[in-house]
């Protein structure tokens, strides 16, 4: 007999018994950040922060890494970026590679053929328009083929130290699940966080919530029973948890 999705979920985790709003502690972002910092210590860093720590921290390297990371797991992104950078790291070096060679080097990531063309185009534009070094300018970065707000902001935060918020699926899901923002899209979440999140956390929020969202506040059956933020979290949209 075929079981319903709800029946399967009940076997996998606990049904959420949501208390009234008044029983939840008022959300304190300072406390939440401190607790999440501690909770993610056992886990690997988000890909671009890991690569930056390894010395791949130029605007170009970070932008290329972000292109590689699109729809690709961090566990694949990091070795793939390192493989490319072992052969070519600067715009000049990458622009001299054939698209076929770039594709071969990044073949482990998703959409690698399209990404190879994008990476070579960006490298060529960096040489021709910017003298071989991409600027710390969000508008100019987003003029480049394949670069959107998420990658531009992440690059500006990590490579340039600019206070920018980068919202991926983890940041979007977790902050909405907390009830800290109430939005429908990552773009709306970015705007809401810019209006509410203290600026000292703008760069850090992505580095915190990527591993937190991957390992604790997961998309399906989140680990609410061990979550350090549970007493403040409104568990928006959570029906079943572990």
In short:
Helix 3 runs antiparallel to helix 4, helix 4 (about 60-70) packs antiparallel against helix 8 and helix 7 packs across helix 8 (about 110-130). The chain contains 13 helices and two strands; from the N terminus they run αβααααααααααααβ.
Layout of helices and strands:
Blueprint (H helix, E strand, L loop, with lengths): L4 H8 L1 E2 L13 H11 L7 H7 L5 H11 L4 H14 L3 H5 L3 H7 L6 H19 L7 H5 L6 H12 L8 H10 L7 H11 L7 H12 L24 E2 L1
Antiparallel strand pairs: 1-2
Provide a descriptive summary of the structure in words.
Keywords: DNA damage, DNA repair, Glycosidase, Hydrolase, Lyase. One of its GO terms (molecular function) is oxidized pyrimidine nucleobase lesion DNA N-glycosylase activity. The chain has two domains: 5-40 and 166-241, Helix-hairpin-Helix base-excision DNA repair enzymes (C-terminal) (Endonuclease Iii, domain 2, Orthogonal Bundle), CATH 1.10.1670.10; 47-160, Hypothetical protein, domain 2 (Endonuclease III, domain 1, Orthogonal Bundle). It is built from 13 helices and two strands; from the N terminus they run H-E-H-H-H-H-H-H-H-H-H-H-H-H-E. It has helices spanning 5-12, 29-39, 47-53, 59-69, 74-87, 91-95, 99-105, 112-130, 138-142, 149-160, 169-178, 186-196, 204-215; strands at 14-15, 240-241. Helix 3 packs antiparallel against helix 4 (59-69), helix 4 (59-69) packs antiparallel against helix 8 (112-130) and helix 7 (99-105) packs across helix 8 (112-130). The longest helix is centred in the middle third of the chain and has 19 residues, at 112-130. The chain starts with a helix and ends with a strand. Residues 1-11 have low confidence and may be disordered.
């Amino acid at each position: 007999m075929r079981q319903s999705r709800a029946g399967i979920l009940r076997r996998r985790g606990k049904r959420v018994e949501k208390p009234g709003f008044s029983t939840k502690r008022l959300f304190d972002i300072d406390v939440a950040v401190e607790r999440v910092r501690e909770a993610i210590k056992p886990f690997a860093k988000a890909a671009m922060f890991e690569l930056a720590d390894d010395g791949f921290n130029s605007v170009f390297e970070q932008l290329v890494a972000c292109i590689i990371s699109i729809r690709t797991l961090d566990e694949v992104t990091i070795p793939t970026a390192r493989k490319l950078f072992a052969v070519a790291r600067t715009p000049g070096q990458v622009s001299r590679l054939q698209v076929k060679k770039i594709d071969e080097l990044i073949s482990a990531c998703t959409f690698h053929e399209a990404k190879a063309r994008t990476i070579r185009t960006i490298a060529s534009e960096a040489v021709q328009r910017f003298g071989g070094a991409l600027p710390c300018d969000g508008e100019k970065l987003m003029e480049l083929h394949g670069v959107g707000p998420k990658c531009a902001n992440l690059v500006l935060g990590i490579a340039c130290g600019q206070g920018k918020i980068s919202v991926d699926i983890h940041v979007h899901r977790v902050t909405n699940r907390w009830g800290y923002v109430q939005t429908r899209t990552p773009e709306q979440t970015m705007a809401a966080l810019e209006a509410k999140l203290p600026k000292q956390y703008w760069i850090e929020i992505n580095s915190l919530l990527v591993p937190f969202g991957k390992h604790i506040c997961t998309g399906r059956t989140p680990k609410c029973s061990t979550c350090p933020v549970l007493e403040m979290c409104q568990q928006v949209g959570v029906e079943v948890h572990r």
